[in-house]
Amino acid sequence: MIRFEQATKYARTKGIKKPIIEDASLTLNRGKSVGLLGRNGAGKSTLLRLIAGAIKLDSGRIIRRGKISWPLGFAGSFQSSMTGEQNVRFVARIYGVDTEELIAYVEDFAELGPFYKAPVGTYSSGMKARLAFGLSMGVNFDYYLVDEITAVGDSNFKKKCQAVFETKLQDSDVVMVSHSTGTIRDYCDCGVVLEKGKLTYYEDVEDAIRAHDKNMKEN
Amino acid sequence: MSNLSTHIRVVGALLVREMATRFGSKPGGYVWALLDPAAHILMMTVIFQAIARAPALGTSFALFFATGYIAFQFYQAMSSYLNSAVRANKALLSYPNVAPIDTVVARFVLQVGTTSLVAFIVLGTIVATMRVETSLHWPAILEAVAMACVFGLGVAMVNCVLFLKYPLYEQVFNIVNRPLFLISGVFFLPDSIPAPYRDLVLINPLVHVIMGFRKGFYPEYRAIGLDMTYLYGIAFLTLFAGMLVFTLSRKTLRNE
């Protein structure tokens, strides 16, 4: 379960103060995967980072039950001077999972070949995404926070992701940000629309998509 | 998430990461961390032996410079390495498990270990090969080292934040910090400086670090002007300021 209680967060850059969420209360129950919809710059990625706990609210609180992943973005949370393998080793250590097992799993999944032992800085964005996706799938979480990542990679890789993801989703849920309503439809049961600092929950993902489309048409 | 075992795990992982990226990319690896200061001391010894007749203290040029240089390094290597602790690990901070303070703790542990190892090897070799037998006074040595580390940590924690917030400050700090090596008493004894100027020199806490450290190697050294209370005060005050700034600027450090 993830519950927002009067959660407020402003984004501040160079004197501009913009609400991401304002006084939002919302409960996301276990067993349902959530699609997060909103216009460009609405703060969807920031919202994922808030859920992950990587950044803090200005006021209110987020209650989390269960193990939540880091936000899985296509930029990756990788240190570019470290090799792919070193990055995987690092994550295995900080999450306390078996290091060798995870290294082997990701090596097999990401299909980076010799690049697995090269600095991440030399990777293409597709390679990074493969590493990021493989890495997070190798660690068991109750919630996976996914930020557009399935949009990266060729069709083979997409198929592979989908297969692994579907087995994962039997015991885990996903909170997904995507501009592709197709992807949201494929993975999510319910939806949340983020618009002007307000979070609106829809039991049916189709309703969420409709609401989002309507928002987009308004301006 | 913020429990102690997570912090310990993360610091451990960061330690390995720092070792791998700091030394792993060059041939020779960690050996350079030891070779670099040793070569420095050797060069200074050779140069000063050529221009001066006797060191300001004792009979060994090597021991005189090594004690000054290494005591100074406990501060200097610490602060310059830790200044960028948060910045260098920015990407890793996107894992919610990793807190900014963990990056500082990891680098602190690694740097204390490295400089201590350098001290053991370099000073050990010098003391063992000297003609005159030296008796070490460990409490004085450890006290000076501890204060240099605490002070370095405090300075670095302040810098971690201020370098991010005010890039101009970084330039100013580096300009001010650079001549510190010359005025901290690595090459000279503050005791021998005439009265009005000596008080100025003694404002610098690192002068006290080096004097205290040398007292541990030279039992006959009187260290006039050494004020450990002042050194403790400055060191812990700086650390407190560092912790305060660090805590208040969590958001900046997380790059929100």
Automatic annotation (TrEMBL), chain A:
UniProt xrefs under InterPro entries: AAA+_ATPase, ABC_transporter-like_ATP-bd, ABC_transporter-like_CS, ABC_transpr_TagH-like, Bact_Polysacc_Export_ATP-bd, P-loop_NTPase
| Ranges for domain ABC transporter | 2-219
Provide the alphabetized UniProt keywords: ATP-binding, Nucleotide-binding, Transport
- Coiled-coil stretches, from where to where? none
Identify the Gene3D superfamilies for this entry.
Answer: P-loop containing nucleotide triphosphate hydrolases (3.40.50.300)
- Nucleotide-binding as a keyword? yes
Please give the Gene Ontology molecular function terms for this protein: ABC-type transporter activity; ATP binding; ATP hydrolysis activity
**Annotated Gene Ontology cellular component terms:** membrane
Q: Does the keyword Secreted apply?
A: no
Q: Which family does it belong to?
A: Belongs to the ABC transporter superfamily.
Know the name of this protein? ABC transporter ATP-binding protein
UniProtKB/TrEMBL annotation, chain B:
| BP GO annotations | lipopolysaccharide transport; polysaccharide transport
Q: How does it sit in the membrane?
A: Multi-pass membrane protein
Name by which UniProt lists this protein: Transport permease protein
Any one GO molecular function term:
ABC-type transporter activity
Q: Which residues form a coiled coil?
A: none
> What is stated as this protein's family in its record?
Belongs to the ABC-2 integral membrane protein family.
Record Pfam families:
ABC2_membrane
Keywords linked to the UniProt accession: Capsule biogenesis/degradation, Cell membrane, Membrane, Polysaccharide transport, Sugar transport, Transmembrane, Transmembrane helix, Transport
List residues traversing the bilayer: 29-48, 55-75, 108-128, 140-166, 172-189, 230-248
Residue ranges constituting the ABC transmembrane type-2 domain according to the UniProt record: 28-249
Classify the source by domain of life. Answer: Bacteria
| Annotated localization | Cell inner membrane; Cell membrane
| Cellular component, GO annotation | ATP-binding cassette (ABC) transporter complex
